[in-house]
Design a protein that fits this description.
This protein is an alpha/beta fold. The protein has 24 helices and 22 strands. Strands 10, 13, 15, 16, 17, 19, 20 and 21 form an 8-stranded mixed β-sheet that branches. Strand 4, helix 4 and strand 5 form a beta-alpha-beta unit. Helix 2 packs parallel to helix 21.
């Protein structure tokens, strides 16, 4: 009798659960249909209007896949932990379209929530801004503070305005990784490191407490070249020369003493900014230029995301008639197996290249790389598909974004041509093997591993010490992998392995240096690479097609529903923001950095534990 009662209760609860979920699903579908058919929130652009370029998120080559249901629940319960990513292509598309739009007469650079970005991406944005200005349109930058990345963009404005209490933070380029040697020793973790290359510093955080002299030597060279490019670009569009940049604390202190610590006055006197204005003054200035909107409280304006929704079709349609130049994006750490969009899986990225190879309308491919490398095995899986494309008669151009180093260079090497921006970080041709064993850590807890096996090789485990001869075997494998890397590059670049070795050994270069060394063919951006691919394929008329991972029908439906703005509002989309400058100095940033470094360990999944990865390619700015 009791069993029947409980069974009845469970059946009732289960029915109620399914009923609630089904009702919620039906409600969301109704909301979605209403949202896409309603014109209440129709975006309208006034005849004279301001494009407010508010870039409130990381700028990326490809957005990282986020489960739409999880994202919606996170928004409703905890708020967004991080701002949404923004496609670099979308920013350029918005600016270029606005330059042709007679209704847009002014662009307002509102960059307060834009985090750091690599110089390569910033330069592509400023090139678009210059095209906008060439149409006799005005650009005004405004902000409380300007970080180094924000200022690079703002420098291209006709007027840089800043709050009187604000400041400009231009610090140069630096890198200060965390080092864990002592911590690992205290935890009794045994490190097993196998590497080749004088400058292969990827494993240093695990075996040292500081940066080696060899690593410092190499890093100073490419960081200095990057800093020189930043200064040159900014000085070219501001009324001062490169000597105006403060590179010592004495210089900064002297100038700040002269203005009694007033950072706003310091910025104005050193011509970093053109004016000191409050929000109210900027608002009135823009009202005077383009007029006030209906309420009269602010100026006619359209935000970045609003304008993007007007110029970018909600769905992409593939013309089955035209010939194509396909773009495949490889962004993130290279790991073995399958990964969603925004990450590089050896199998999943190879599948995208294979999809382009099997598409009869695709006549050429641009492999857009933004990666510091990772698994050597996964890199080779991807490179094999590049070779297959070439064998099929389809030219491949490797287009390097911010970073294409180590494994990123491995996959680029097989292309017909390698294109990169002058500031692209590349090279780092070297390999290493790494894993940890915890026999001593376990012993401290009184836990041990023991037993028998038919061979000595069967006992390899993270719970047992590494056999010394097995360590020699792994070192031999790493050395062989390095020789393979040298051969891969030598064959592709028409060099000898000895010539490659002289500029390899894990050393990092920026692309302007790499071109002189023969590692890069041409300097240019993504569009230049697309045009080069079309030229190699002898295409006069073509369309550009980005090859993307296909969503399942269920994933697509969930994305359509939960990605809709009205549905987000119904669920309760709350966001939290934080000052860009504050986020760099509080305790949370330290915890986040430590968490990120530890979390990166999950990407070490090469089946042979051999990696070609550049960890020094993350630059602080």
């Amino acid at each position: 009798m009791i069993a029947k009662v409980f069974k009845g209760l469970w059946t009732g609860l289960n029915f109620s659960r399914r009923l609630v979920l089904n009702l919620l699903f039906v409600l969301l579908v109704i909301l979605f249909i209403v949202a896409i058919t309603s014109d209440e929130d129709e975006i309208k652009v006034a005849d004279t209007s301001v494009l407010r370029l508010n870039l409130n998120g990381p700028i990326v080559e490809e957005k990282t896949y986020v489960d739409p249901v999880e994202a919606a629940i996170n928004d409703a319960t905890m708020g967004n932990e991080a701002p949404a990513e923004i496609l670099l292509d979308d920013i350029i598309e918005v600016i270029d379209q606005a330059s042709k739009d007679e209704r847009i007469s002014v662009m307002l650079l509102d960059l307060q929530k834009m985090p750091s970005a690599h110089l390569n991406k910033l330069k592509q944005i400023t090139d678009a801004i210059e095209r906008f200005k060439a149409q006799n349109k005005q650009v005004i930058a405004t902000g409380y503070y300007y970080t180094q990345a924000q200022y690079y963009i703002a420098a291209h404005a006709d007027e840089i305005a800043m709050h009187p209490y604000g400041g400009v933070a231009i610090e140069g380029y630096g890198m200060y990784p965390l080092y864990f040697k002592d911590a690992l020793e205290k935890l009794a973790v045994t490190q097993h490191i196998f590497r080749v290359g004088t400058f292969k510093s990827a494993v240093e955080p695990f075996i040292r407490n500081d940066m080696s002299d060899a690593a410092k030597e190499a890093n100073r060279v490419w960081l200095g070249a990057l800093w020189q490019e930043y200064k040159r670009d900014v000085a070219a569009v501001r009324p001062f020369d490169e000597s105006n940049f403060d590179e010592t604390m004495d210089e900064l202190l002297t100038k700040m003493q002269a203005v009694n610590g007033d950072s706003g006055k310091y910025s104005l006197e050193n011509q970093w900014v053109d004016s000191l204005k409050t929000n109210q003054q900027i608002r009135q200035q823009l009202i005077d230029i383009v007029g006030a909107e209906e309420t009269g409280k602010t100026f006619n304006q359209v935000s970045f995301h609003e304008y993007l929704s007007l110029v970018k079709p909600p769905m992409e349609f593939d013309n089955p008639i035209t010939e194509k130049v396909a773009v495949v994006v490889a962004k993130g750490t290279i790991v073995d197996g399958e990964r969603k969009a925004g990450e590089i899986g050896g199998d999943s990225t190879a599948a995208l290249l294979r999809k382009a190879r099997l598409d009869d309308k695709v006549k050429a491919v641009v492999l857009r790389i933004d990666s510091g490398g990772g698994s050597m095995f996964a890199s080779e899986v991807i490179r094999a598909e590049v070779l297959a494309l070439k064998a099929a008669g389809k030219p491949v151009i490797a287009s390097m974004s911010s970073v294409a180093a180590s494994g990123g260079y491995w996959i680029a090497s097989a292309a017909n041509e390698i294109w990169a921006a002058p500031s692209t970080i590349t090279g780092s041709i070297g390999v290493f093997g790494s894993f940890m064993t915890f026999e001593n850590s376990m012993a401290k807890l009184g836990v041990y591993s023991d037993g028998v096996a038919t061979t000595e090789m069967a006992g390899l485990s993270i719970t047992r010490p590494l056999n010394e001869k097995m360590a020699q075997v792994i070192q031999l494998s790493v050395e062989d992998a390095y020789r393979r890397f040298l051969d891969v590059v030598a064959d592709a670049r028409d060099m000898t392995p000895e010539q490659v070795d002289s500029i390899a050994q894990g050393r990092v270069w920026i692309a302007s240096q790499a071109q002189e060394l023969g590692l890069v063919d041409k300097l240019g951006n993504k569009q230049d690479a697309i045009e080069a691919a079309a030229a190699l394929a002898k295409l006069d008329f073509y369309e550009v097609k980005t090859i993307k991972q296909s969503l399942t029908p269920q994933e697509q439906m969930m994305q359509d529903i939960f990605g809709n703005a009205s549905v987000k509002a119904f669920i309760g989309n709350s966001t939290t923001t934080q000052s860009v400058l504050a986020s760099q100095t509080d305790l949370n940033s330290i915890v986040k950095k430590l968490s990120t470094e530890i979390n990166d360990l999950k990407d070490y999944n090469d089946p042979q534990n051999i990696y070609s990865r550049c960890l020094v390619c993350n630059v602080i700015q």
